Amino acid sequence: MKSAHIRKHLVAPSSWQDIPRGEHYRAALEHQLQPWWGKLYGFHLLKIGNLSTEINSEDCPISHQVNVAPQGENLHVQGDPYYLPFEQKSVDACLLCHTLNYASDPHRILREVDRVLIDDGWLVIGGFSPLSLLGVGKCLPVLRKRQPFCSRMFTQTRLLDWLSLLNYEVMYSSRFHVLPWHKQGGRLLSAHLPALGCMAVIVARKRTLPLLPTAKKVLARRRSMVQPVGANKSYRKGHDE
Questions:
Q1: How many CB atoms sit inside 10 A of residue 129's CB?
Q2: CA dist 235 → 204, 224, 225, 228, 230 (Å)
Q3: Using one digit for the tens of pLDDT, what is the confidence trace for 129-140?
Q4: Structural domains in the chain?
C-alpha cells in the first residue's frame, strides 16, 4: 500500500462549482448527512476546507459554526488545516468534506482535528471513492489531470482503519451516487449496489477509553471477583448444623 504522505502539493477547488457536476455531488452529500445533523450537539462546529463551508448545515443544533480554509470566500477564520488556530479540545464537531482528497498528508490533518476535538466529539468525513466510475477515470491519461479525477481517492476501508488507530467509534458509513454524470446518481443502482458509489461518507465519534477491554483489564477484573477462601465451607457447615 502506498504511503498517504506525498510531496506533491494539491490545489483544492475553491467551490463545488469548480468541479464538473459538483453541485450534484454536494446535493447528494447533503442528503446523506441530513439525518445526522439533529444528532450532533455542542457549542462549536468546525467546517474545514472550502467545500465543507458550502455544505448546508442549517438543521444542525450547533449554532456557532466556523468556516476555516487557507483562502476563499465566506470564511470566518483563515487558517491552515495542518495548523488549526484553536485550543486543544475546544471544538464539539468537525466537518471534512473532500478535505482529505486534496491533502498531501491526510494523517496530519486527522491528528490536528483529533487535537481540537473534545472527548466524544463528532467527526464527519466525505470524499470520493476509488472503487467507482470516478476511480476508473483516474486510470485514463486524458482525465487524470482534470477535476475531480486529479484528487486523491482513499477506500472507505482505509479511512476506517485510520479512524480506528485514533480510537474513533464509527456511527455510520456509506457509499452512494453510483453514476457521477446523473443528477440523482442513479437511485436504483445506488440502492442495490452502494459499494460502487463514487462518494463516501463516515460519521464517527472520538472515544477516550478503549472500545474493547484489554487482556490486562479482563484479568484484573476476574481476579477481583475471586471468591474468598473458605466462604462456601463456612456456609455449608452452618447450614448442616
A1: 22
A2: 51, 21, 18, 12, 9
A3: 999 999 898 888
A4: 16-211 (3.40.50.150)
